[in-house]
Design goal:
With 217 residues, the protein is an alpha+beta fold. Helix content is 35%, strand content 24%. α1 packs antiparallel against α2.
């Protein structure tokens, strides 16, 4: 699933717990994010404002990356006839349209790329589906109520490709990486399942049982 790229960029163990072990735990942050996405992802509320169309919950797929999912919002902007490169025809609409993905997050912009790689992956899907190139998208953050432009550079695209490959490797292996305890762990909804401060580096399940239960089977 395309949404997994944000999780694996944040933490490989978090990705594995959610997408391989099928575990999930909600905290205040994830609950607020879920409510925000429920509002945004209602495809019945797609709308238009003059030369701009807003299409919600758009299905996505990339066979090159091996990902599928959906975009929170795709913004279509009508372009002039003199600027039709990378524009598409939209059924039922006149003219040609520029495609711009928009991803919604509840909090504030993060110091890492874990959010924008998800947006870039969406853009790559849209490019493959429509045979176009998309140079820019937007991240919308709920706390500042502001959106930020993201340029889809080659380095960002390479990072998306690397993360996608790593997702496939972990999923195919079916193994969850050992925890690595960092400061950001306490903001993770999976903290209780992961228990990164409990395991010693390199400790396996047998060692854990011997230490905490005094016996193994």
């Amino acid at each position: 699933m395309l949404s997994g790229i944000q999780h694996i960029a944040f933490c490989e163990r978090q990705y594995a717990l959610i997408y391989i072990e099928q575990q999930w735990n909600e905290n205040l942050f994830t609950a607020e994010g879920r409510v925000l996405h429920e509002r945004v992802d209602d495809f019945t509320k797609s709308e238009s404002r003059g030369a701009v169309q807003f299409i919600r919950a758009v299905p996505l797929v990339s066979y090159e990356l091996g990902l599928y999912g959906r975009a929170d919002l795709v913004e279509l902007r009508r372009v002039e006839s003199a600027n039709i490169e990378n524009a598409i025809v939209v059924p039922g609409k006149h003219g040609l349209w520029k495609v711009i993905p928009v991803e919604y997050k509840r909090g504030i912009p993060k110091p890492t790329n874990c959010d924008i790689v998800q947006l870039c992956a969406q853009a790559i899907c849209l490019e493959e589906m429509n045979n176009i190139t998309i140079n820019e998208g937007f991240m919308y953050y709920g706390q500042p109520h502001k959106r930020y432009a993201v340029q889809f550079t080659q380095s960002l695209r390479d990072q998306v490709a690397d993360l996608s490959q790593r997702m496939h490797e972990l999923f195919s292996a079916g193994k969850t990486p050992l925890p690595v305890y960092k400061k950001h762990c306490h903001s993770c909804s999976m903290f209780g399942y992961c228990q990164p401060n409990t395991f010693s580096k390199g400790q396996n399940a047998t060692d854990y049982l011997e230490t905490h239960l005094g016996q193994t089977e």
